[in-house]
Specification:
- This protein is of the alpha+beta class and 457 residues long.
- It has twelve helices and 19 strands.
Length: 457
């Protein structure tokens, strides 16, 4: 067993008695103790109750009872989502002692399918940033290079998935908060259409969690495209009080292979120029899809609303303003910037230690941030400090304004979007990607498995 296996494979191993739920939970806890001090992805743990639930899950398997699709899978949940009996802060000091009495609807569905919630992952304050820092827990680092950001606001969630600290994650997305972290950390994320997954229990202000936030959606983050399909099937559908009014019946995919599938390619836009390394990687992925029989069509859809920014525009004044503003608040500092507005974000604040995390269960005590003495010396996972630029997938310092502008039409249109992982070996061979068919159902053309970053046990 490897902790970076897809969630579906882990669940199958538990159901077939090849793997115990307690064994998997202990593996994740051990990895959190080993790797989380450098990553600061998991900020609250509920290990004792989770171990009891895992024991019950193993007993159910031994007795031959009916099992849910996620039976026995230990999972963490983004700290912007309410979990009963577990501190849920939204990254805000005002909620440092908030312990909900009930689960968010989406969390209750994960539990009903057999998942075991054992922790919460870091977010920026009120989930309102494209990096992951708050004054309660400090800064979360990218698992491939801790000198860089995992993105936000589901940065702790994506880091935990990529580093093999959890089976999968549940994030939220208004302005790319699932998509950016999935891209930066090399994992898969799904922003579903608005309303498909209930968002009751979302913490974006004091007193939040009781109403729906406009445009906001809940979405899964996982290590394989097939897991997103599995999780969407568990999570989708109206809240119980709305079930009499409508129901969700997703059609089956028209195709189950890439052959003959029509795929639109929209890689660049005048308002969103792309780094050459990223562009080359995406074009290589498109070539692989074409080789597999897909019909690739380059086209610019008639979508307006993307801010026009000429490719040669000098963004250095803007980056300097961001650097000053962020440094003033102790959030992060822009490490370097060039004419294209490239920036790497190095965490300046702290991280919670293992003992501080362990205190964060039902007692609800806040974990103080601890200054980081030497950020980024190694990747914290036994691997090199930096991978080759083309292999970093999302750790390449992309234009801060560009990668947020491009998805906004999809956000405003409440359209579902899937962030797929693309990895590259040091030799330059692109070997894995994922895609969706014409109906939006997920099709994987390879196995998601991070390379060259020490993520194996």
């Amino acid at each position: 067993m490897e902790p970076t296996w897809p969630a579906r494979r882990l669940a199958a191993a538990i159901a077939s008695k090849q793997l115990a739920s307690r064994e998997l939970l202990q593996t994740f806890l051990d990895r959190i103790e080993r790797f989380n001090p450098a990553l600061n992805a998991v900020v609250t743990l509920d290990a004792e109750r989770a171990m009891q639930a895992a024991s019950a899950a193993d007993q159910a398997v031994a007795q031959g009872r009916a099992l849910g699709p996620l039976h026995g899978l230990p999972v963490t949940i983004k700290d912007a989502i309410e979990v009963a009996g577990l501190r849920s802060t939204g990254g805000a000091a005002e909620l440092s002692g908030h312990v909900p009495q009930t689960d968010a609807v989406a969390v209750s569905r994960l539990r009903a399918a057999g998942a075991i919630v054992f922790g919460k992952t870091n977010v920026p304050r009120w989930s309102s940033d494209i990096q992951t820092y708050n004054e309660l827990f400090g800064t979360t680092s990218n698992p491939w290079d801790p000198a860089r950001t995992p993105g936000g606001s589901s940065g702790g969630a994506a880091t935990a998935v990529a580093a093999g600290l959890t089976s999968f994650e549940l994030g939220t997305d208004i302005a790319d908060s699932v998509r950016i972290p999935a891209h930066f950390c090399g994992v898969f994320g799904l922003k579903p259409s608005f309303g498909v997954i209930p968002q009751r229990g979302y913490l974006d202000h004091v007193g939040g969690g009781t109403t729906d936030a406009d445009i906001n959606v809940f979405g899964p983050i996982a290590r394989h495209a097939d897991d997103l399909d599995l999780l969407l099937g568990v999570l989708a559908g109206p809240e119980p009080e709305r079930e009499t009014a409508w129901r969700l019946e997703l059609p089956p995919p028209r195709r189950t292979t890439l052959k003959g599938m029509r795929i639109g390619l929209w890689l660049e836009d005048p308002g969103c120029p792309m780094d050459r390394e990223v562009l080359a990687l995406l074009r290589a992925a498109a070539d692989l899809l074409a080789d597999a029989g897909a019909r690739i069509e380059e086209a610019h859809p008639p979508v307006e609303g993307v801010p026009a920014q000429p490719a040669g525009r000098d963004h250095r004044p803007r980056v300097r303003r961001q650097r000053r503003a962020r440094s003033a608040h102790g959030v992060a500092r822009m490490d370097r910037a060039d004419r294209c507005g490239r920036a790497a974000v190095r965490g300046r604040a702290g991280r919670a230690d293992r003992r501080g995390i362990a205190r964060g269960g039902a007692a609800g005590g806040a974990v103080p941030a601890r200054p980081r003495r030497d950020p980024g010396r190694t990747d914290g996972l036994g691997g090199p400090r930096r991978l080759p630029a083309a292999a970093e997938h999302g750790q390449v310092a992309v234009g801060v304004s560009h990668h947020t502008n491009f998805p906004h039409p999809m956000t405003a249109g409440r359209i579902d979007v899937t962030a797929t992982a693309i990895h590259q070996r040091r030799t330059g061979h692109l070997w894995q990607t994922g895609s969706t068919d014409a109906d939006g159902r997920l099709t994987a053309t390879g196995r998601a498995r991070p390379q060259n970053a020490g993520l194996r046990p």
